[in-house]
Specification:
Elements: H1 2-11, E1 15-16, E2 22-25, E3 34-35, H2 36-46, E4 50-60, E5 67-72, E6 75-80, E7 95-107, H3 109-118, H4 123-127, E8 133-145
Parallel strand pairs: 3-4, 6-8
Antiparallel strand pairs: 1-2, 2-8, 4-5, 4-7, 5-6, 7-8
Length: 148
């Protein structure tokens, strides 16, 4: 049994903690997680890129579970994993703690349409995407989903 736990930890797969929380990607300390709105403000005003953030998931990639959005006071913040891991597709509304970096990214029209398809947007909304978008993103190295 100890070998199975070590293999799961070494592979970076999902693991169940004693509290029922699930981890994906890299392990990290959640003790000093910053609320997502405060972390966004720190990035915008102080340039603090590295962060451990917590907030509510407002949308999840329905194709693979390869991204999610945090709900913020300014709308939604896109969280990408660079296809290093996936989270369950049914986690909308759950609290997630993520470790990663903030940045600004230009998202191509092709990718915006792909994300809209992943989110099951209507075809008319997908077809209306005509311009690339510069937006704040959070690239997560690890995510922990809190128990329901």
């Amino acid at each position: 049994m100890a070998c199975a736990i070590l293999v799961a930890a070494a592979c970076g797969g999902a693991g169940t903690q004693a509290t029922g929380e699930k981890r994906y990607g890299d392990s990290f300390d959640t003790a000093k997680a910053m609320e997502i709105n405060a972390a966004v403000t720190a990035f915008k005003t102080k340039g603090e890129k590295d962060a451990v953030v917590t907030g509510e998931i407002s949308a999840v990639c329905q194709a693979e579970g390869c991204w999610f959005n945090y709900q913020t006071t300014d709308g939604e913040l896109f969280v990408d994993f660079n296809h290093k891991f996936e989270i369950p597709k049914d986690t909308k509304g759950r609290t997630a703690i993520a470790k990663g970096q903030f940045s600004y990214d230009t998202t191509t029209v092709e990718m915006l349409k792909e994300y809209a398809k992943d989110d099951k947007k209507p075809q008319a909304e997908i077809d209306a995407i005509k311009e690339p978008e510069i937006r704040m993103v959070f690239t997560a190295a690890g995510v922990m989903l809190k128990s329901k």
